[in-house]
Each structure stands twice: as structure tokens, then as C-alpha cells.
Amino acid sequence: MLKFCSLYSGSSGNSFLVQSNNVTILVDAGVSGKKISDALASLNVDINNICAILVTHEHTDHTQSIAILSKKYNIPIYANKGTWSALGDKKSKIPKENIFYFRNNCPFKLGDLNILPFDIPHDAVDPCGFSISDGFSRICIATDIGHITTSVFDILKNSDFVLLESNYEPDVLKYSRYPYKLKERIASPMGHLSNIEAGRTVNLLSNFGVKNIMLGHLSSENNFPELAYRSVIEQLQNKDINIYIAERSKPSRLFCIEDNKEYIC
């Protein structure tokens, strides 16, 4: 059985908890170490039991506290070569014995977890999502993704639970106060996924039997939870699917995922 919780999700910072029977990991640590420690404590998870932090890419809203957490709690940090090279001074603050490398599209193991980092299109050096399985259930984390490629979709469709970006509503972004260049970046194929594209993706995933989707990385300026939810629901042909929203500033409930079913732990 896998357990999942979105600790924080949004442009202000991202961090996700994944647990198996004997391994507890974080994906990203883009808020302060104290916030992560407090969020874990609220779930009765001891931060000293975190076995690793997996890093999707180098942007600060995904890496803010990796160095302090690694040093304070002796947590190994896993990232690919491109991401490590882009982390600069942050890497130098991590104990050398806690620096680990993986290659995108090459699976590796952490305890009883099978982890596949997969390429995603985003304006970072070498960004990735993660497919995480205990051999029975599979969770996929795919945020900061400009568009859904065939290879990304093929990974997502085999999941029991998917955290999928639903960053912005196109009409809200169009009239927002963001500078034009930033709007272009967000809406580009290497930027972020819109509510419309998220909805299309969720609809297709439902045709492959995916039952549980959490929408994440919602923009605070160009989206809001009710709009993201409605935009996705309106595109669904198959209503036999659970849609959740990852909140920006507090943990979601803790999900137990088993054989394409989820329930509150």
C-alpha cells in the first residue's frame, strides 16, 4: 500500500509525501524546513524518518529547503546531473555523502519503492516527473509541465493516483497583471499546464481506468481551486473518477492508494 499527501503545492512552494510499508520520501522541498517539519508532524510523520528527497528540477519553489533539511536531518537528496549543475551554491551546502544522482527514464529503487524519473517539458535544465510504485500500486507526480507528450501520457495512464498540474485559466492569465513576457512563458509549451489542458488529459486518463486525480500547482494569480475543478469536470465524459485539489498553504488529507482505490488513511 502506498500513502500520499500533498504538503504544499503552488507557485509559492511544493512538497509531496510518499510512503510505502518501509520507506518514507519527499518529492521536492520548496518551502521552508520549518513548514515541512510542521506539516509532517501534523500527519504524525517524524521528519527523522524521511529516507530521501527526490528533486524534480532546480527552481526555488521546489528546492528552497533541500540543503537545510539534508544537513539538519541527514537526508539524502536525489536529482539528475542537469539539476545538480543548476543548483549552484545550494549544492555546496549539502553534505557530499547526501548527494545522489539518477538519470531520467532510468528506474532505480529506494527500499521497496520502484522509482522512474521521466522527462517533462518545462523551462528548467533537465526537469522530470516521478512514477513511484511499491509493486502493487503506482503514484505519478507531474507538475511544472508545459504540455502533455505521448511519453508522459503513457506513464500517467498506468497509474492508480496522479498529481497533475492545473496551473492557470487561459482567460484569467490573459487579463492578469503579469508582464506580457511572463504570460508568454507560462502559456508556452515549456511553461505550465492550463486548466483546459489538464481537463483534456484527465478525460483521456479516465478512459484508461485512472480513478484518482489531484490537481496541483495552481497559480495564486491566474487560477483558483473552484475554477480549476469546474474546468476539469466540465470536460469529463467518464464521471467515474475522483478529482481533488492540492492546497497551496496546507497539507491535503493523507491518501491510501491500493489497486486503483483510494481512501482516507
Write the layout of secondary structure elements.
Blueprint: E1 2-8, E2 15-19, E3 24-27, H1 33-42, E4 52-54, H2 60-63, H3 66-73, E5 77-80, H4 81-87, H5 89-92, E6 99-102, E7 108-110, E8 113-119, E9 128-133, E10 138-142, H6 150-156, E11 161-165, H7 170-174, H8 180-187, H9 195-207, E12 212-216, H10 225-233, E13 242-245, E14 255-258, E15 261-264
Parallel strand pairs: 3-4, 4-5, 5-6, 10-11, 11-12, 12-13
Antiparallel strand pairs: 1-2, 1-14, 2-3, 7-8, 8-9, 9-10, 14-15
Helix pairs in contact: 9-10
Q: What is the CA-CA span between the terminal residues?
A: 11 Å
Number of strands: 15
Number of spatially distinct domains = 1
CATH homologous superfamily caption: Ribonuclease Z/Hydroxyacylglutathione hydrolase-like
Order of helices and strands: EEEHEHHEHHEEEEEHEHHHEHEEE
Spatially, the strands of the biggest sheet line up as: 6-5-4-3-2-1-14-15
| CATH-scheme architecture | 4-Layer Sandwich
Largest sheet: 8 strands, mixed
Gross morphology: globular
Content of β-strand: 25-35%
CATH-defined fold name: Metallo-beta-lactamase, Chain A
State the helix count.
10
Look at the helices and sheets and give the structural class: alpha/beta
Provide mean pLDDT, rounded.
Answer: 96
Which CATH class is shown?
Answer: Alpha Beta
Spans of at least 5 consecutive residues with low confidence: none
Radius of gyration: 17 Å
The residue fraction in helices comes out at 25-40%
